[in-house]
Amino acid sequence: MTKFNKSLAEHRSGILDEDLSEDDLVWFNGIADEYLICLKMDKERLDDQDPWPEAAVAHTEILYAIFNLFQAMNLPANGSLGGLVGEELLEWLNTNFIAPDSTEAIELQKLNSPWDEDKWWQYLIRCILRGLTRAAVVFLESLKQHPSKALVQHAETLINFLTTHPRSTKFTTEHDFFSAWRQWKARVSAFRKRLEGLLENENEEWLSWVLEIVQIMEGDKATIKRYCESFDEGWKEAICVWGVWVDVGMRRHHIERTLATIFQDLPLDSTLPEEHVFAALFQSQVGEVIKRSNELDIWLAAHLADMMQPLGLLMDIEGAKISLRNHMILNYAEYLLVDPSLWRISALYMCDCGEQGKIRADEILLRVPLNLGISKGKQKTGHMEIKEDDPVDERVLEILEICKEYGREKVRREICRIAGRTFIDQGRYNLAISYYTSAEDWIGVSRVVDILLSRSLKGDTKEFIASVTEIAPTLRQPSSYSQISIRRRLTFLIKYAEFQTRWQNGDLQDAAWDLITMFREELVPKSWWGVLLKQAGDMLIQDENIMPFEVSEVYELLRRLEEVQSRASQGSGLDYLSALVPQVSKNGEIEALRQLETVRLALARYFARCSVLAVGGRGRILPQTA
Amino acid sequence: MLQTNLIQNAHADLICDASYNFYGTRLATGGLDQRIKVWRLDEQSGEWSVEDEWKKRAHDAAISRLAWAHPQHGQLLASASFDRTVKIWERVGDVGTNPGSFSGVGSGAGASSDRWVERALLSEAKGSVRCVEWAPTAFGMKIATIASDNHLRIYECLESATATAPGGSGGSSTGLNAAGNPSAATPPDSVLGINMSTPGAPVTTPGPSQPWALTWSLIEDIDVSAMPLFTILPTTGGEPASPAPGQSVPLATTTGLGGSEFTTVSGFDTTASVSATATTSGGAGSSSPFIGGKQVLGSTATTLTSTNAGSGSNIAALGNSSFGLSSQGGSGIPSVVAPTGGSPGNTVNSSFGVLLGSPPTTSAFGGLGGVTGLGNVPPVSGSSSGTVHTSKVGNSTVSNREADGGWDLSWCKDPYWGEVCAAVAGGSGIIKIIQLQAGQRPRGVLFLDPRPSSSGSGETLNSRGATPTSTPHLRAQQPGSQFLSPHHPTSAAAAAANHSKPASPKPSSLATTSISWAPSCGRSYHLIAAGSRDGKVRIWKVRPPPPKILDGEDEDETDADADEYEDEQRYGGGGGPNNNNKTSWSASIVADFEDHASAVGKVAWNITGTVLTSAGNDGRVRLWKCTYGNVWRPMGSLDVIQSDDVIDGDRMEE
Hints:
The complex is a heterodimer of chains A (626) and B (654).
Chain A: H1 2-15, H2 22-47, H3 54-74, H4 86-96, H5 102-110, H6 118-129, H7 133-142, H8 149-164, H9 174-201, H10 205-218, H11 221-230, H12 235-246, H13 255-265, H14 273-282, H15 286-296, H16 298-311, H17 324-336, H18 343-351, H19 354-366, H20 394-405, H21 409-426, H22 429-438, H23 442-457, H24 461-470, H25 484-504, H26 508-520, H27 529-542, E1 546-547, H28 551-569, H29 573-577, H30 589-613, E2 619-620
Antiparallel strand pairs in A: 1-2
Helix pairs in contact in A: 2-3, 3-4, 3-14, 4-12, 6-7, 6-10, 7-8, 8-10, 9-10, 11-12, 14-15, 15-16, 16-17, 17-18, 18-19, 19-21, 20-21, 21-22, 22-23, 23-24, 23-25, 24-25, 25-26, 27-28, 27-30, 28-30
Chain B: E1 2-7, E2 15-20, E3 26-31, E4 36-41, E5 48-53, E6 63-68, E7 76-81, E8 86-91, H1 103-109, E9 116-122, E10 129-134, E11 141-147, E12 151-160, H2 172-178, H3 182-185, H4 191-196, E13 203-206, E14 213-223, E15 272-276, E16 290-291, E17 295-300, E18 304-308, E19 317-318, E20 335-336, H5 344-347, H6 352-356, E21 390-393, E22 396-399, E23 408-411, E24 419-424, E25 431-436, E26 443-448, H7 458-464, E27 483-484, H8 491-497, E28 512-517, E29 526-532, E30 537-543, H9 547-551, H10 559-571, E31 586-593, E32 600-605, E33 611-616, E34 620-626, E35 632-639, E36 645-646
Parallel strand pairs in B: 26-27
Antiparallel strand pairs in B: 1-15, 2-3, 3-4, 4-5, 6-7, 7-8, 8-9, 10-11, 11-12, 12-14, 13-14, 15-16, 17-18, 19-20, 21-22, 23-24, 24-25, 25-26, 28-29, 29-30, 30-31, 32-33, 33-34, 34-35, 35-36
């Protein structure tokens, strides 16, 4: 039912500040219809269940009746709140409390002389009371078989009365209706007086029944109340037929007063919470409606409040920080979380409750388990089954989508940060970078970069290259990062991975070019100088036939090496060697410096070769051909 | 409410605390057996099963509190213990990390399961650590701890995110030692190792696969009992500008009391039960489970409480205290708790609560003989056996025994107001709201005093030289300072009182055993719930200074709140019609329930701060909710032993 809420919110946002027009009321009437359809479907679903959930079905029926009454009282289909209400109430009664039972009618009509049965007359009277003209006429037609000619005649008269009974729905103006009704009532009164005269002389049993019928038609309050008392619906039946038979001019604001007189004879059953809701709705006591609905059903209270708010019916408590409508909706939304799988609906409801609701929705969205990397249906104790190359859990995408839709940017970022951290733990670094980037958590991004770089040092170069390659192409464009430090870090990571790839592929010259470029563009973090210099040394001695560096590049490397060594002599060696130190076996910095000495030697030798061969730059020394 | 799960025999001994992780999908439990277990919820079946189990003892004494870090810090768990330490554990070994590679750290720590690695040992506390709580993530990686030495300690973890630290495999121990923390490298079973560590020394450990190092350092060390109330405005009249020292109940003597006494209690059913609210709008998340038992003691984020069942045990024997192991001369003197009268009902108030500082304790210690029974307690290092001090506070006698005290803390969850923490320490029950500011001394911005104003004037007023009778509800006499008593005739409190049962028997202590700061969720005020040993659950409505004070905004924007402020000030501001009082924190009490009628062990909020859960020695977990009319009402309760429940209905008052 949430889907309506959104359109409802959109619609009312445009009309809240002004008085509601008839069109608006018709529009809201349509919304109420939608809720009623949902309730009906819910009931049908329950009806299909086996065993039949009697209590649940009854509860749904009550909800339907209440919502329907709210609609009848506040959202007239024609949009006119000031109009005559009798027919609408009668329709509500006939829709929600179906009576009399049609199977009983069939049984009664099978009888040879049904008019001998009190039940038959009672059935007829209830049909008339409820405005079921067609059924009543069928019953009266059967009186034509009656031996008494007088009764046959009376039946004719009654049928005539019923078929000519003016119903407000059939008239276009109230004036026409009232004048028609006055004429009709005068005829009924005249007939009643004749009957009363007959009753003095004759002692036929049917005569008193006919008189009762005529009294009801004439709107005799005592008779109508007496009959309503014998029916299950009691006071509800009375108030709903009142506007058709007794007070045809009854309007919505008359109901409260009328009901007070009815209650004197037909009290409500105070043990049933729904009775209170019905009564409050009839009397337009909005606060009482919400309060009693809340006792009956939290969904009902929330959605009634939601409908009442834009209609201007709700009065918030003075000084309340939150509107009654929002309070009820939030209550319902929290209640929904009893079933954690309903978090989406709960969050949507909350998001519709102003800023405070959105902040609550934040908490809900934040705490939806992301279950990243856990394959469905395989959650076993102590074992997280990780699917390799599994697309990111759909749930996290869904949550992020909702966050975006409602502009919950803070939460979206927090969820991204959590996801990023989880992906680090799971070794899915490409996703970690994506999520940290989405969260604009640069510390997080650099954290992943650090991890990846440190992994490259652990020897699993191929894995390192694969991890870097997996990073989304857009994220590999350093220009997509506004932060310079991150941009440099990421550029170094990418370049270093390219360098490693080329080196792995045996493309020494291009690898050397990469290495030099990284130094020249000052991308190499100081702590990594030692590592890269060491690797340059390794390249120099890898293949004597290949001259990977130009002379100027050798100068560059020597210059860097010199800086490392001189700084180390001043005690700042770790600044340059901290990445290299863990790689060497023992003695830490001393060993690292010793290894760099061999690099210096290799560089010197390479330099010498360059001079002797006059190569002047990179190239392959071809075996001299004779 | 339905009980959704019952974890039978969760631990070998009583459980002291149970804590949900951020999502409510995992549950960490710890108890007297000094071990921690992590339980995992199968979201499909709703079953809880053990996921990780510490093979060795996590601590050298009972575990008092467990707390999960926000998941953006990774899977971190902090454990506080009666061995005076706090440990930070990290779960490793998921894909991408190789558990084997950290065995050096793990085995060095010695108290871990395969997957949980000890990352830090914080051993500055001079008494049993009663609470540990992670700060809101906005403040970085911080934890606050409070110990029975009345000190609130804030630790911060700094990540040195460089490539210098080695990777996970190989050589990780170098990084660890390079940081120079002796305690981290000390074999854990050595008590000396714990005591040797230099207070305040940063504790550094490398991350598992992370190339950054985590360094924990003590950044604040606050004696809560001696903390003065900060005053913003200059004082009027001849009053001193700063509060006299010792305005709080002088509990300093408890320092060094250490953990006293105890351990195993025989005859208890070590069972944890988990239940979820299924009807009323209980907690958030699937499981707003409660762990049940007769004594309800622990609890965490999503309205969770933990407890231990005690059914029908009349005699609780105090074996030699595990705590004694860490104390000099702790030769393990057995002490025995006398029968508590034979009624099973009475046994509820048994010794376990002593450990947790929750139940009435006279029966727990040395039998029913009262405080003299404490002679059985093994002396703790540095303190004589005569550690029991009693002082008169108003009409009630407050014992200064550790067993009578209450220690707890709770962070303000909303980072907007800066780093603010509520703490309670000792037997006075006064909740102190402390504001922490970088580069400045922490300051107490508001004190909430649960003592009846008629009886509790005690030292506080006298030490300040104030007139006790003029403003009976008000403890602070200086403008801008707030020192509140709950016994204001507010309409809400009066309404709440209608739902309260007649007063319980005279409590032995007024100590506040548990406090919980509600997530504010966009409200302009804060709610702090407090459970106390006198059986009351109170909810304080705390109002921070208006934003204009903090932000320098126009006054117009806050005019709407002005009336409410004045309303608050009638109770909170004190010092007459001084509108300038709007510049400070104020509070009023909005609910005061006595339904538990026995000591309250724990209070906890749901994630939106709309439902309060409290657990008491009456063996019930009670839920409280606010109506639209701002009246707090009982929403329902459940019996943690019988698993039956009583729904009072989700009432709504217009």
